[in-house]
Amino acid sequence: MEEVDRIIVHSLRSIGCDVEDDIQSLRQFGTELIIATVVQCLKVILGDIDLPSSLPPGMSARFRLGASLANHVQDLGYKGGDLGYQTFLYSNETEIRKIFMFLVEKLPKESSQAADEPIGASVLLQRAISTEINTQLSMAWLPSFLKDKGVRTRSKPPGWQIEGACCLQHYHSCPVFIPKSIGNISNKVPKELRSYYIKHLPYVTNQTNLHRDLAPSIMEANSLEVAVSQDWENEWNQIGLASRLSQQEFKKRKYEKLLKMIKDRLQQDSQLQEKIDSQTAISDLNQILTNIETQNKTGNVKTKGSRFAHTEKLQYAKDEEKTMSQIGPAVPEKDKDTEEELEKKRKEEVDSLRTELSSITAGLEKLELEVKKFSTGRQEMEEEMASQKKSIEEKNAAYKVKKRTLDLLPEAEANIEKLQQLVETSSQRLINLSKQWEAHRDPLIQQYNELSQLNSKRESEAEKKLEEIKLFRNKMKEVADDARRKEELHKQLVSEYERMTKDVNRSAYTRKILEIVANIKKQKQEIDKILVDTKSIQKEINSLTGKLDRTFTVTDELIFRDAKKDEAVKKAYRFLAALHENFEQLISTVEDTGVVMREIKDLEEQVEIESNKKVLSNLEKISVDLQQMKKENATLLAKVKGK
Amino acid sequence: MMADLKWESALEDISKASIQDIENLCHLIANSICRDGAIDPGQFSSIWSLEKWWQIQTGLRGVLKTAVGKNWANDQISNALGSLDDSYKKIICDVVSIHKEALRNKLIQDTTAVSHSVLADFDWKLKLTLASDKLASLQEPLLQLSMDVRQSNGKRKIVTVELDQSELSKLISSLESCSKSVQQLTTTAPQP
């Protein structure tokens, strides 16, 4: 009962009823408190009701209030019995408890559906955005000169916001110098670098030219680092591991590849440039020259650059000299004569130049033809020379052989024998050598086979290990994702838990409920036992009375038959009858006692209930109120009559 | 490379200043090369006149750039500095070694920007057009992309482009394919 009362009082307090702190059970609720709380409950449940929140002084008003309260509660669906004004004005603890339990259940539940499912981060973010925009929109408009660079402070919720577009700035980033690898003591930093960091390096906020460039520069430096490391990881994971080189070797090889590619490209392009018609080459190089000159003037120095700028410049320098020599004579000279004479002169010049040009081109063609002839002649001569050389060599060799034989001719036979022996020995040596070679070759071939097998095995093992590494990496990523998700979930649940109110101790309730359930089970078992007992006793009683009747009739007949003849038997029969009657009376009195005791118990219970109803005090109150009502009626009548 | 007469006189002037000042000056020059900024000659006005200041500055700048660009060792640097004191030479060599990375990056950037324009920075604004003169309710989100282009003559020009959603996605996909092709080019270049 106390638990129920505590819950009721707590929920009444939470809807705003003014219940004092020392009131813990419903027995302590006075009439005014009951009425005030019931009115508050009805207001919360039904919204706008035109009910006064405290007990009015006039008796008739009180009566009307009680009746209306009873009506409302019955409209809400209360099925616990008859309600009337008396239940509120002259209250009874149990009834009040029932009514309050009903009303508290009917109270609208606090909206906690939102906290039922764990909310995702994006939904939280959207809700935060919408609340922020709502607060910002709800503020009144301020002219721009009252805001310092568009920043405006507000008091509730306390904070500041930026309004308008006057404070937007251009995004311009500069390279910033951030000390690297200082936190790790094992990394060696050269002494001059360390002294630079300590003495000369300005803070990052001072490194940009303009203060507004600070944020963009830092963002760019950060995102550059992140992008580079991500790119490197991707590349290393996909290609680097597959190539099975260490990191430095991989980087070195990539660097060399790139250098070679750039060199090839530059060489190709420069060769292409040479093959193009000289006129367009001149105009292109002119453009490049003018570009370079303007760049030099504005101070963008390109004369001192990396290796490739240097090679570029060298090539351009060579072409520069060519073009300088070609441009020189091609520049027309300005004349100071009159226009007509100028025109004539020009025409004459043009004609002469044209004739010269045609003669020169004719000469060029002739020369080209001759050059071709000479080159073909030269090629033929070269071929002849080559063939002649070959024949000379052959003849030399033949001459040597013949000379030898001539020398050997005088002692022909001995020499022939010697030669034959030589041939034999050399052939034998050949055979020996080939045997040795075979003997040497076999183990080497075996070794070679074994080593190639080992190598292939190792390669396949290495591939297997690579695949395993890839699998592990995937698993690592998955586990990391899982861990992150669970951490987020944990954070959400912790925040939800903190948000929830801790006034109501749910574990105590659950424990009590479980205890009550266990108690009820025990009681039920006991009741069953008692029922079983009762049934068995009843069966015994029935069987015993049956036995009794049967024995009585049997003895009765037996003795009655003999009673007609004998006197002693008649006496015995009379005694038997008296015995039976007495015992029957005994049994009936015992039964009556049992019934009377049960009635006593019932009556005692009723007495308790009635005593709880405080009938006497209520009766006194009613009589007092009746007197008051009579008085009020009389005064009203008097008023009406007086008017 | 440098006008030798002027450089020699500049070396004398360098020797007039203290080591601390020269150290500060070298660091400032290195930072200003990286950041395209100018140095305030006021801090050194007590030591050198303005003309000498310009000489010294151009000389030191030239030394730093050639030293990093041609990857000189410390001996070559000290040879190029000629008749300067050893302590000053050591300072200049130290400055070169400290700022080598950053100066090298800057020189490479400048070289790769030869003869065409380069995107230096970009900024975006998200706009919502509510209505136009033809339609009363035109709730369309637009992205205004303003690109800061550094041209080959050194001037910066701002190019602004307005994109709607489909165009923006096209731009993003084409940039992604560019990056992929660059990646392929760098990683699967032919074997040497």
UniProtKB/TrEMBL annotation, chain A:
Question: In this protein, which residues make up the domain named CCDC22 N-terminal?
Answer: 1-108
Q: What protein name applies here?
A: Coiled-coil domain-containing protein 22 homolog
Residues forming coiled coils: 350-436, 462-503, 612-639
Q: Which domain of life is it from?
A: Eukaryota
UniProt lists the family membership as follows: Belongs to the CCDC22 family.
The molecular function terms of the Gene Ontology recorded here are: cullin family protein binding
Position of the signal peptide? none
Q: What are the entry keywords?
A: Coiled coil
Phylogenetic classification of the source organism: Eukaryota, Metazoa, Spiralia, Lophotrochozoa, Mollusca
Q: Which residues does the annotated region (Disordered) include?
A: 320-348
Q: Where is the composition biased (Basic and acidic residues)?
A: 332-348
UniProtKB/TrEMBL annotation, chain B:
- InterPro entries from the entry? COMM (IPR017920), COMMD4/6/7/8 (IPR047155), COMMD8_HN (IPR055184)
Which part of the chain is the COMM domain?
Answer: 118-186
Task: Write down what this protein is called.
Answer: COMM domain-containing protein 8-like
Gene for this chain: LOC106067879
